[in-house]
């Protein structure tokens, strides 16, 4: 599926990759270190190399893809192994955000660090990560500056803070980038889309009214020109006839 995704997207596309499931970490050979894996539904935790997806595969996929923006949302244990932490580090002004959305970007938000297991509760219906992901996007709660746009940076900050509260610090989501591309993934709120649509509709209606008024003015002028002759004949007053004496 990842291979098909890479082949199907174009250079102006934006891609959201969301994985919710099991994650596992294995210690590497003599040199030490860890390697993280995402375990799909048909994966085998006892045979990770052949049945799971290495975390660093996401980096290769992102390098291979032509998509302008990619956002990886990884709701799994030990998900922090998939990213290199580096945020925007600048105030998210409209001018800066406009510039960043024109740049290529690869961003990652994971449910926890490389040594952390993620928490879920029956009352949530899913994990703390997904709980805050949904509320952040569906209810626009991640829109920190209330501008109708939720950037990947805003979403990552909201999820991290929300999960830290819900789990009492048991695990902390991580946000960062794959590679050095500075571009920013953004979500446009439905409220903003509606407002923009209403404005466009109003502008269209106004343009239509102005066009109709212009036609009416044109018709009135034409009617006036047809009623009044261009070169009216002079009005000749009849001369007085002298009275005859009898």
Largest sheet data: 4 strands, mixed
Q: What portion of residues belong to β-strands? A: 15-25%
Over the alpha carbons, how many angstroms does the gyration radius reach?
34 Å
Low-confidence stretches: none
Mean pLDDT across the residues is: 79
Class from secondary-structure proportions: alpha+beta
Gross morphology: elongated
N- to C-terminal distance: 123 Å
Q: Percent of residues in helical segments?
A: 25-40%
Kindly state the number of beta strands. Answer: 11
Give me the strand/helix succession: HEEEHEHEHEEEHEHEEH
Q: How many helices does DSSP assign?
A: 7
Strands ordered across the widest β-sheet: 1-5-6-10
For this entry, give a set of tags.
246 residues, 37% helix, three-stranded antiparallel sheet, alpha+beta, 11 strands, 22% strand
Fold and architecture overview:
The protein is α+β, with helices and mostly antiparallel strands and 246 residues long. 37% of the residues lie in helices and 22% in strands. It is built from 7 helices and 11 strands. The protein has helices spanning 2-8, 48-51, 56-64, 94-101, 128-138, 152-166, 190-227; strands at residues 14-20, 22-27, 34-39, 53-54, 69-75, 105-110, 120-121, 126-127, 149-151, 174-182, 186-188. The chain has a 4-stranded mixed sheet, sandwiched between helices. Strands 2-3-4 form a 3-stranded antiparallel sheet. The longest helix has 38 residues, at 190-227. The protein starts with a helix and ends in a 19-residue tail after the last helix. The mean pLDDT is 79.
């Amino acid at each position: 599926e990842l291979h098909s995704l890479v082949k199907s997207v174009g250079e102006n596309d934006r891609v959201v990759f969301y994985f919710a499931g099991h994650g596992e970490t294995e210690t590497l050979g003599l040199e030490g270190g860890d390697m993280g894996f995402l375990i799909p539904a048909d994966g085998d935790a006892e045979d990770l190399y052949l049945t799971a997806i290495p975390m660093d595969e996401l980096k290769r996929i992102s390098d291979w893809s032509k998509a302008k923006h990619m956002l990886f949302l990884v709701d799994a244990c030990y998900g922090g192994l998939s990213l290199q932490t580096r945020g925007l580090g600048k105030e998210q002004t409209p001018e800066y955000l406009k510039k960043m959305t024109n740049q290529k970007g690869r961003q990652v938000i994971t449910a926890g660090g490389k040594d952390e297991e993620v928490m879920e509760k029956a009352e949530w219906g899913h994990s703390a990560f997904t709980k805050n992901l949904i509320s952040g996007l569906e209810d626009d709660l991640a829109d920190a500056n209330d501008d109708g746009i939720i950037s990947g940076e805003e979403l990552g900050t909201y999820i991290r803070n929300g999960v830290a509260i819900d789990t009492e610090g048991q695990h902390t989501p991580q946000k960062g980038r794959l590679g050095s591309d500075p571009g920013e993934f953004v979500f446009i709120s439905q409220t903003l889309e509606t407002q923009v649509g209403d404005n466009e509709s109003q502008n269209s209606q106004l343009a239509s009214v102005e066009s109709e008024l212009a036609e009416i003015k044109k018709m009135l002028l034409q009617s006036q020109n047809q009623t009044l002759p261009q070169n009216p004949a002079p009005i000749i007053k009849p001369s007085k006839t002298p009275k005859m004496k009898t």
